[in-house]
Fold:
Amino acid sequence: MFENIELIALLNFVTSFLMMGVIITTQIVNYPLFLSISKNDFNNFHSNYVNKITAIVMPLMITELILSIILLISIQNYMTILIFTTMSLIFISTIFIQVPIHKKIEKEANKNLLNKLIQTNWIRTILWFIKSSASYNLIKGLL
Structure:
């Protein structure tokens, strides 16, 4: 169906590893730093952070989802199923867990919510690691 599936797999590989870098930075640096921002500065900081990170992450995530669908339709093997499944789970986690927590944090930031954000974000961190590994294995098998 798609003539240059190797290029699509390579783009998937690149976006996977970009997002894995972003999510690891978010998990280990950004979210824990939320705990050290004063209450007076937090709302402004959080709002700016969410707007700026969304501008970076959303285009990459949508690209990843589209590429994972194309790969699944074109190749249908264990790696493409794993890539699509992890990408789907990342979207589910983002939409139903992390975004609602961010919305609550917008209204009232407290340590419990911030810790919940940090803890639940491990879901996406682990999923992006799995997706990146599967993307590497797919590209390795194609080249």
Q: What stands out?
A: The chain has one domain: 5-142. Residues 37 and 52 are 18 Å apart (CA to CA).
